């Protein structure tokens, strides 16, 4: 019960940070997607796609509700990235360490760029071509670096959070 | 792979979930979305208020620190501008006195134009993060759908499109769903002001015969009756023909940065009418 409450609180906290901190204090539109995708990629790499999927869907949907995006859009990107993380990590990444961070960061960066293109044009007739035409390539290195940095931080925080949750779930030794 | 194996594969599950989620996003059920957002932003209003006030404090400090280097140059520029404005002010003071005496002689009082409700932004999002904002006033404070949101001395920023008990969602005029009547000051060219994916504002459907040039100021025309007339939208930055060449369209440079909005005023009533 304690761990369930902690998980739900963490999901809501992340969404509130996105809507009321990152979207309010910074004009950049890639910060929150980058943070969110770091969480889902970390979850997928640590638990495996199938086990992480329910949490990934819930995080995505709550984030969609909080940040006023079309409901389902961030969730769909989160599921796609979580699957891609599991799929590519089995084929290209051996063990842990720097390469894992680089791989995950680049995946998050590309996911963020793709999301920023789709989010600007989803459901608006003819907008995708205009968004692609006006796409600024200056965002690419920033998104990739942000992906690596945010994944490194999120992965460390998530590992400690999971340890704390397993402590909460452990049977009372006394 | 046998059919059972396929139906249990990760790929199959991912495809099904993705199809459902993208379908949900494309369908965009408005009542359900409004209900979920309303519930979320009502429950977490105190937390959002706390977070946003801390964020605004952080942003203000960051902007102050980054602007220190520019202060000297800015000071010199302002000193020059001050001299020019003093001269202009003297002329305006003369006109003000003349206007006041004329109003007195004809029995007209100077009145405020709008009955306003002050609100503060507590969250932002949509269309890449800056298509809409959530404000800290809702139906309990008299906010209703369609109210106009302005800043400063009548600069249009958006229209309330969803109302919750203690908060409301304002669709900014940069939002793709926003569209309202506009008119240019001076030459009176009418058109439609429309948001461009949360990134900017377009001024379209202007007749080819109507004059439209860079630097023209666009204000609301009041057509439709929802938005008061005469609210500043922005300045025309570039003009071109529309895709079908039937009309002319322009990009509008807004006078405010929509990514940095904090205090908005909702127009309760246009009391000048």
What does this structure look like?
The complex is a heterodimer of chains A (174) and B (273). Chain A is 81% helix and 0% strand. Chain A has one domain. Chain A is globular, with a radius of gyration of 17 Å. Chain A contains seven helices and no strands. With 273 residues, chain B is an alpha+beta fold. Chain B is built from five helices and twelve strands. In chain B, the strands form two sheets. Chain B has a six-stranded antiparallel barrel with strand order 1-2-5-4-3-12. At the A-B interface, helix 1, helix 3, helix 4, helix 5 and helix 6 of A face helix 2, helix 3, helix 4 and strand 1 of B.
Query: How many helix segments of chain B?
Result: 5
Oligomer: heterodimer
Name the chain pair with the biggest interface and residue counts per chain: A-B, 49 and 52 residues
The span between the termini of chain A is 19 Å
Strands of chain B, total number: 12
**CATH homologous superfamily annotation of the largest domain in chain B:** Rod shape-determining protein MreC, domain 1
* CATH class descriptor of the largest domain in chain B: Mainly Beta
Q: What structural category arises from helix and sheet content of chain B? A: alpha+beta
Q: Pick out the low-confidence regions of chain B.
A: none
The CATH topology of the largest domain in chain B corresponds to Thrombin, subunit H
């Amino acid at each position: 019960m304690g761990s369930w409450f902690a998980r739900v609180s963490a999901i809501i906290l992340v969404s509130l940070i996105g809507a009321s901190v990152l979207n309010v204090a910074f004009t950049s539109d890639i910060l929150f997607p980058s943070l969110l995708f770091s969480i889902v990629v970390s979850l997928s790499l640590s638990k495996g796609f199938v086990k992480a999927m329910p949490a990934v869907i819930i995080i995505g949907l709550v984030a969609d509700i909080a940040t006023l995006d079309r409901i389902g859009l961030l969730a769909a990107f989160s599921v796609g990235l979580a699957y891609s993380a599991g799929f590519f990590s089995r084929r290209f990444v051996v063990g842990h360490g720097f390469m894992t961070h680089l791989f995950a960061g680049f995946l998050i960066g590309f996911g963020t760029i793709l999301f920023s293109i789709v989010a600007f044009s989803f459901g608006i007739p003819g907008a995708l071509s205009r968004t692609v035409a006006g796409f600024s390539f200056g965002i690419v290195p920033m998104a990739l670096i942000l992906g690596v940095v945010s994944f490194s931080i999120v992965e460390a925080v998530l590992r400690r959070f999971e340890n704390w949750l397993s402590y909460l779930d452990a049977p009372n030794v006394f | 792979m046998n059919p059972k194996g396929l139906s249990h594969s990760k790929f199959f599950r991912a495809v099904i979930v993705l199809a459902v989620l993208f379908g949900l996003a494309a369908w965009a059920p408005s009542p359900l979305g409004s209900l979920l957002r309303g519930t979320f932003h009502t429950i977490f209003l105190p937390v959002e208020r706390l977070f946003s006030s801390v964020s605004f404090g952080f942003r203000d400090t960051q902007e102050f620190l980054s602007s220190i280097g520019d202060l000297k140059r800015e000071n010199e520029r302002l000193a020059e501008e001050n001299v020019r404005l003093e001269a202009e002010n003297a002329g305006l003071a003369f006109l003000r006195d003349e206007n006041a005496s004329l109003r007195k002689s004809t029995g007209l009082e100077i009145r405020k134009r709008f009955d306003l409700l002050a609100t503060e932004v507590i969250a932002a999002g949509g269309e890449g993060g800056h298509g809409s904002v959530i404000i800290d006033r809702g139906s309990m404070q008299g906010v209703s759908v369609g109210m106009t949101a302005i800043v400063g001395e009548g600069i249009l920023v958006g229209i309330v499109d969803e109302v919750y008990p203690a908060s409301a969602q304002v669709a900014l005029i940069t939002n793709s769903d926003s569209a309202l009547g506009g008119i240019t000051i001076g030459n009176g060219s009418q058109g439609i002001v429309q948001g461009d994916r949360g990134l900017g504002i377009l001024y379209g459907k202007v007749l080819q015969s109507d004059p439209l040039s860079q630097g023209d100021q666009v204000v609301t025309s009041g057509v439709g009756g929802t938005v008061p007339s005469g609210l500043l939208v922005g300045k025309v930055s570039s003009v071109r023909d529309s895709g079908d060449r039937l009309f002319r369209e322009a990009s509008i440079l807004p006078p405010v940065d929509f990514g940095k909005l904090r205090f908005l005023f909702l127009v309760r009533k246009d009391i000048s009418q």
